């Protein structure tokens, strides 16, 4: 007896130029008001409601081991007194949970830091894929003149440990003046 095979649409669509289309999408915007502490100094030319970056994604049904989250981080090409726009940065609460970042658009740096405080960066440009060790802190930095769009996939039980970065900050800051990128120790 032949039983007809079911072929359906997935219900989620992501174009590399656009957003994720799905009824499960959640979006958060990071405003300058709550990002001021990331930077060396306050930039009076930026209003508090400036959108620094947006995270659009699909959370797994359960934030438990075995489940995966998917998101796009979109960092706008802004500087804060010359310092490149960046994410807050975090370690995972569960250091066994690794992550992939995939650059879809723009130019940037993925700043990484191990548990001993050694810090380095990987260059990001369209197509670069970044495998993040679960024991490494990570932060995205937009060094380009357009949005930096990064696709992120991680274990749903990873969690975000922001406090660890606040107590032991990344030891370098990245600045941009025209096309020139400079790195300074904190
Ligand atoms: Fe992460």
What does this structure look like?
With 186 residues, this protein is mostly beta strands. Helix content is 3%, strand content 42%. The protein has one helix spanning 162-167, and strands spanning 13-14, 20-21, 26-31, 51-58, 68-75, 79-80, 83-84, 99-105, 108-113, 119-124, 129-132, 137-142, 148-155, 172-177, 180-185. Strands 3-4-5-13-8-11 form a six-stranded antiparallel beta sheet, with no helix packed on it. It has a three-stranded antiparallel beta sheet with strand order 10-9-12, with no helix packed on it. Strand 1 (13-14) and strand 2 form a beta hairpin. The longest helix has 6 residues, at 162-167. It starts with 12 loop residues before the first strand and ends with a strand. The model has no long low-confidence stretch (mean pLDDT 96). The structure holds fe (ii) ion (FE2). The site of fe (ii) ion (FE2) has 5 residues, from loops.
């Amino acid at each position: 007896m032949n039983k007809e095979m079911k072929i359906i649409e997935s219900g989620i669509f992501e174009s590399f130029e656009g957003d994720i289309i799905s009824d499960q999408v959640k979006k958060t915007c990071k405003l300058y008001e709550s990002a001021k502490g990331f930077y060396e100094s306050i930039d009076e030319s930026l209003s508090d409601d400036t959108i620094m970056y947006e995270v659009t994604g699909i959370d797994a049904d359960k934030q438990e081991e075995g489940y995966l989250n998917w998101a796009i981080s979109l960092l706008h090409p802004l500087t804060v007194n010359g310092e490149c726009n960046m994410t807050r940065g975090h370690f995972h609460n569960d250091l066994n949970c690794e992550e992939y970042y995939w650059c879809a658009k723009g130019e940037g740096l993925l700043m990484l830091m191990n548990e001993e405080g050694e810090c380095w960066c990987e260059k990001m440009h369209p197509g670069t894929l970044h495998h993040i060790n679960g024991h490494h802190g990570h932060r995205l930095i937009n060094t380009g003149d357009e949005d930096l769009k990064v696709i992120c996939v991680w274990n749903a039980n990873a969690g975000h440990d922001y406090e660890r970065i606040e107590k032991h900050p990344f030891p370098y800051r990245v600045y941009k003046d025209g096309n020139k990128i400079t790195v300074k120790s904190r």
